[in-house]
Design goal:
Number of strands of chain A: 12
Organism (chains A, B): Garciella nitratireducens DSM 15102
Oligomer: homodimer
Radius of gyration of chain A: 27 Å
Strand order of the largest sheet of chain A: 2-1-3-4-5-11
Number of helices of chain A: 13
Keywords (chains A, B): DNA-binding, Repressor, Transcription, Transcription regulation
Distance between the termini of chain A: 55 Å
Order of helices and strands of chain A: HHHHEHEHEHEEHEHEHEHEHEHEE
Largest sheet of chain A: 6 strands, parallel
CATH class of the largest domain in chain A: Alpha Beta
Protein name (chains A, B): Transcriptional regulator, LacI family
CATH architecture of the largest domain in chain A: 3-Layer(aba) Sandwich
CATH topology of the largest domain in chain A: Rossmann fold
Shape of chain A: elongated
GO molecular function, one term (chains A, B): DNA-binding transcription factor activity
Chain lengths: ~350, ~350
DNA sequence: CTGAAAGCGCTAACAG
DNA sequence: CTGTTAGCGCTTTCAG
């Protein structure tokens, strides 16, 4: 556990050159340095197992090569993929990420932003609860001196140089369209709470898809509840018991879809044999549980990846003092995953 | 996006004291500083929204307040809880964590360790693939100058100041014992590959529990395959078709348990009504899918939490140059979760 | 082609 | 009680 590590100073002494020369060589800024000294220095550095001290460098360059990732909770299955996407892009560009779990708690978020600022991160990727007032968001990101990219959020705040969103309306529209193309006409929709924009967009996409085909939808086909397996079961039971004829069910998320499929198995005789089921594959990998399920896969990994890309681009531009201040917006599509019944 | 932030120098000038005074006050090392100057400095610091520059401090103190977390893949449902545990403890102690996904790739691991060392992390918490030779592990952690805590691994390597493990043997033993206490006597065991110590320990626990009760087990009761839902289904079918009488099944992980329960539903008439099913709740939260399932919940969160605790303890001791070099080992128990049928 | 020198922002003795 | 003085390890003009 030796703390002692070689410095460029020691290398310089050993190589009998100045520390400036060593620094330049080690940073590949050796335009005008002779091959001989160059090799000599490099050899010594390797021998002594030189490890640059990032702190010292950062003190001068004002860049740490670290970006902060602020999310509600990595334990929520929605986030690991995002985190992975961010990390992958970051490490491609030789950035590290510091991860912060806020539990959707404003105070914690503020505190983390503060810490990240002290730690001199070069930028921040942040997602926060969809149920949050705009003023709060502003307060949170206020006073933070680094570029920010939002994931799954669409506020306009100074410092926010980018946003990555998914088009839920379109995804929902296409999912329903897929069912329609398959010949289904009576498509029920089971969703969780409608108090997030995501949920409302999905519902609108469903309605729009039907309207486009001139199919009027019936309010009785729409069941609003919770994003839980149990609600998938209950809502499906309701549909059956209410004697509403349906030949397909579209589920607002994968938990609901899992529940719905469970329930349908019990009603094999009461519903069409080839009933169409579709769900959003948000979090629980419904497909692992119900391999026959067709889903709209949310591009979580991609969201993280593009967010990091946007951020790093912004960081670099800024360090070049380019002052092009339009915030970029990337809207990603969900992907229809059709599986064969097993 | 102002990069300019106030320094203690400016505060010192404004308060008409020396920078040393300001530094001491801001670090609560103001044993002998008058209340008046103290308040004056604090007031100015607040007014100017002073943010300490961690880089500059770290350069001197050789402490960054950052811990590296090296894991195979945050996307693997085994790790988010661990990561959360590490982060929670870390943030309690005002440490941040940098997360690295190695994909069980030695080269990547080496590279990350290198980067973390450059970034001057104060310590590292690492988990790596169970299928790995000891020599490799040594090579990886070699040359790394900071304290290390291993999660779910038990190698003895310099720098490793702690290990956090779960007692799989005991967990398995207790799970089977639970079934025995319930009156089950013919307990089958479906496991994945036996080439990890975890899997072997679990199998041994199963055998030991039976032996303790003087129950001889039959090799036909043990099905070795993969940790997948499909294997749970197939193995269960096998058991039924082979006409081996069993009144309970113990599953090596939750995917297998999910598969097994699926299969059993199809054989309702061929197996005892009150068949006992038990599984390890490692990764997929089997309980969400099959709420009636009794499981041994792996203490992932706790592993992370204790690992961070051990590491931080070690970091502090080291900074105090205490040279007590025994590596601590924490062995955690899984927790039996009995659920009511829904 | 290379070296000297001036810091980055902060801490930590050591004087007064 | 507070100020002076050295650096931490590195980058970066600017002279030679």
């Amino acid at each position: 556990m030796l703390k002692k590590s070689v410095t460029i100073k020691e290398i310089a002494k050993e190589a009998q050159v100045s520390i400036a020369t060593v620094s330049m060589i080690l940073n590949n800024k050796d335009k005008n340095i002779s091959e001989s000294t160059r090799n000599k220095v490099l050899k010594i550095a390797k021998e002594k197992n030189y490890i640059p001290n990032t702190m010292a460098r950062s003190l001068i360059t004002k860049q740490t090569g670290i970006i902060g990732l602020v999310i509600p909770d990595i334990t929520n299955p929605f986030f690991p993929e995002i985190a992975r996407g961010v990390e992958d892009k970051a490490s491609e560009e030789r950035y590290s990420i510091i991860i912060c779990n806020t539990d959707d708690n404003l105070q914690k978020e503020d505190q983390y932003i503060q810490i990240l600022t002290e730690k001199m991160v070069d930028g921040i990727v942040i997602t926060h609860s969809a149920d949050r007032y705009q003023e709060d968001s502003i307060r949170i990101l206020d006073g933070c001196r680094v570029p920010i990219v939002l994931i799954d959020r669409d506020y306009s705040i100074p410092n926010v140089i980018g946003k990555v969103l998914v088009d839920n309306f379109k995804a929902s529209y296409e999912a329903v369209n897929y069912l329609l193309n398959k010949g289904y006409r009576k498509i029920a929709y089971i969703t969780g709470s409608l108090n997030t924009k995501t949920a409302r967009d999905r519902l609108e996409g469903y309605k729009e898809a039907l309207l486009t085909r001139g199919i009027s939808y019936d309010e009785r086909y729409i069941k609003v509840g919770e994003y839980k397996i149990q609600w998938g079961i209950d809502a499906t039971k309701k549909l059956v018991s209410e004697d509403v004829f349906f030949d397909a069910i579209f589920c607002g998320n994968d938990l609901i879809a899992i529940g719905s499929m469970k329930a349908l198995k019990k009603f094999r005789l009461k519903v069409p044999q080839d009933i169409g089921i579709m769900g959003f594959d948000d979090i629980y990998m419904a497909s692992v549980i119900e391999p026959a399920l067709t889903t709209m896969k949310q591009p979580n990994y991609e969201m993280g990846y593009y967010a990091a890309e946007l951020l790093i681009e912004g960081i670099k531009k800024e360090s070049l003092s380019i002052n092009e201040k339009n915030t970029k917006k990337i809207i990603l599509d969900s992907k229809l995953i059709v599986r064969e019944s097993s």
